[in-house]
Amino acid sequence: MLPVRDGARTIAETLASLQAQTWSDFEVVVIDDGSTDATAEIVRAAAEDDERIRLHRGPAAGVARAANEAARRARGELLVRIDADDLCRARRLACLVELAAEQPDAGILASCVRFFPREVLGGGTLHYETWLNGLLTHAEIVRDRFVEYPLPNPTVALRREVFAALGGYRQGPFPEDYDLFLRAAGRGVRFAKHPDVLVDQRESAWRTTKHDARYGLDRFHALKVEHLAPELRRLGRPLAVVGAGPDGKRWARSLAAAGLPPTWFVDLHPGRIGARIHGAEVLGYDDLPRAAGAFFLSAVGRKGGRDEVRASLTAAGLREEADFLCVQ
């Protein structure tokens, strides 16, 4: 599935990386979503030399609708995503086919990723890459589902029946790929990730995620709250937010707006302990027994903080997923 709009700068490279696959039994369904540049001409020229490439043009309807259209037109049972500015390594499809056979219960597959060009990457992107590539098992992926999107979207492959059961991508004021993932996780879909880097993801100023408001941090946060709030309501437990800094306060405000005001904050800072923030008392870690029965959300954003909180809560006898979750 290759939805594209105005991808003339890079789509020839993307198509070439697909044509170089060691697994040859595939098709490339390109949905040109209202391009005004030479995208269609480039794809059409490639299709003349390779019948596996199929181009379909339509009006600008958005990436979610374009991807859904690609899935509708695809004939295979494994729907593999790629964007028009990213590159597949030669073994990508072969590895995904093997992974699908090895883990037949996994409905959504992915792989590790490498961002490029390396010379333009900042420390934040490299840290994000390390985090993405460190989540390999289903349990690790689901555990961090409210931290960020744990599956690099250009690496994803979906079984057709799972994609159909989820209703495909939703079009809305939010990142459609992360929304699909959260809906899948909420329905108990199993995930699998190949440990090798199979996709090189391009970082560029013209990438949609850089300028489209749907991919802003505020939209990611709102989507997390939308999906997490029903889970918390079903638990019916008082809430405690770990971290009384900016991230924790933002989560407290959002949860209160959703009718789930936290009862406590938990923080290390001695100047905060005993105070009240947004009506919630701030406890120290030594005071955790006072919040017995609470469900904890760790919203500590500083580097390394998540692992420290995870270790502290586990040492206190709390179980991740059952008693606490990490969010960002």
Describe the structure.
The chain is of the alpha/beta class. It has two domains: 2-215, Spore Coat Polysaccharide Biosynthesis Protein SpsA, Chain A, CATH 3.90.550.10; 218-326, Rossmann fold (3-Layer(aba) Sandwich), CATH 3.40.50.20. The chain has twelve helices and 14 strands. It has helices spanning 11-19, 39-49, 63-73, 92-102, 123-134, 138-143, 160-166, 176-186, 208-211, 217-235, 246-257, 305-315; strands at 2-4, 28-33, 53-58, 78-80, 87-88, 106-116, 157-159, 190-202, 239-242, 264-266, 276-277, 280-283, 295-298, 324-326. Helix 2 (39-49) links the parallel strand 2 (28-33) and strand 3 (53-58). Helix 8 runs parallel beside helix 10 (217-235).
Total domain units: 2
Strands, count = 14
CATH class of the largest domain: Alpha Beta
Work out the strand percent.
15-25%
Q: Average pLDDT, to the nearest integer?
A: 95
Terminal Cα separation, in Å?
30 Å
Can you say what the CATH homologous superfamily of the largest domain is?
Spore Coat Polysaccharide Biosynthesis Protein SpsA, Chain A
Strand order of the largest sheet: 11-12-10-9-13-14
Poorly predicted runs are none
Output the helix-strand order.
EHEHEHEEHEHHEHHEHHEHEEEEHE
Radius of gyration: 22 Å
Q: Indicate the overall shape.
A: elongated
The name of the CATH architecture of the largest domain is Alpha-Beta Complex
Helix and strand content put the structural class at: alpha/beta
The number of helical segments is 12
> At the third CATH level, what is the topology name of the largest domain?
Spore Coat Polysaccharide Biosynthesis Protein SpsA, Chain A
Largest sheet: 6 strands, mixed
What share of the residues lie within helices? 25-40%
